[in-house]
Amino acid sequence: MKIVDQRKILHTQTNKLLESDRLLISDIDHTLLGDRIALKELIDYLQSSEIAFGIATGRSIESAQQILQEWKVPSPDLWITSVGSEIYYGEEIQMDLEWLEHINDQWQPKLVREAIAKLSGIKLQTAEGQRTHKISYLVDPAKSPSIEEIQVHLRQYQLHVQAIYSHQEFLDILPLRASKGDAVSYCANKWNFAIENILVAGDSGNDEQMLTSGANAVVVGNYSFELEKLRGQEPVYFAVGDYAQGILEAIAHYKWR
Fold first, then answer.
1. What would the mean pLDDT of 99-109 be, rounded to a whole number?
2. How far apart are CA 146 and CA 168, in angstroms?
């Protein structure tokens, strides 16, 4: 993998990715956001530390920017968006084009849509939910096949994809090489972070691969039941506190302060 020209971003927030040896990456909805008091405490802590900060979200980059501005969250050093299918850096929102090239291998979105259309209980989300390397659906669990059956169905069409299910209603189809977890591993390698010096935070199924990537992980207290299967796995910490309070709890648990 080539590394983007770092000289162009040394004077943006992204320089923390070069200077720090620790990196916090959090999901946005129901993880970073939800408790304004705890969020302010977390932001104050990050701004007073040398820790680099990233988000990993199912939202598009445009939607992520908007919601973080609404909650007065400073621009992250690292943006992993659209369930890991896109990566950007700093306030300049510089896209990592090498990542797109990497995940594009054997990606056939037209065939994916045709295959999923044959299944009941699964409806394509509106156009704003779709991205070049992410196809998103709404699922009616009472009518649709299980996620395991969906994955078997896609394999029958020899599609090199992964299906990610979250909150018992959202289904994202991504290239085989794309997920939040794959994006975290890629960024760790690109920016020379030891995986044990990364803390990831999430609450739902589309965070699972990130939470089991080998990084120190926290499942916040208000998590979706689909993550219960991770309880007891190391290094995955189940916080008592909800939202950003759970992240602060994990920072103490992992002795980051």
1. 97
2. 10
CATH 3.90.1070.10 fits 106-175, yes or no: yes
Looking at domain 6-102+178-253, which of 2.60.120.10, 3.40.50.300, 3.40.50.1000, 3.90.1150.10 is its CATH number?
Answer: 3.40.50.1000
Q: Which residue has the tokens 């040398």?
A: 50
Q: What is the pLDDT of residue 95?
A: 97
How far is 13 from 254, CA to CA, in rounded Å?
Answer: 25
d(CA 209, CA 202): 10
Mark out the alpha helices in the chain (DSSP H runs).
Answer: 15-19, 36-47, 61-70, 97-103, 109-116, 147-156, 180-190, 208-211, 243-253
**Structure tokens belonging to residue 161:** 């994809």
pLDDT digits (tens, 9 = 90+) for 34-73: 999 999 999 999 999 999 999 999 999 999 999 999 999 9
Radius of gyration of the chain (CA): 18
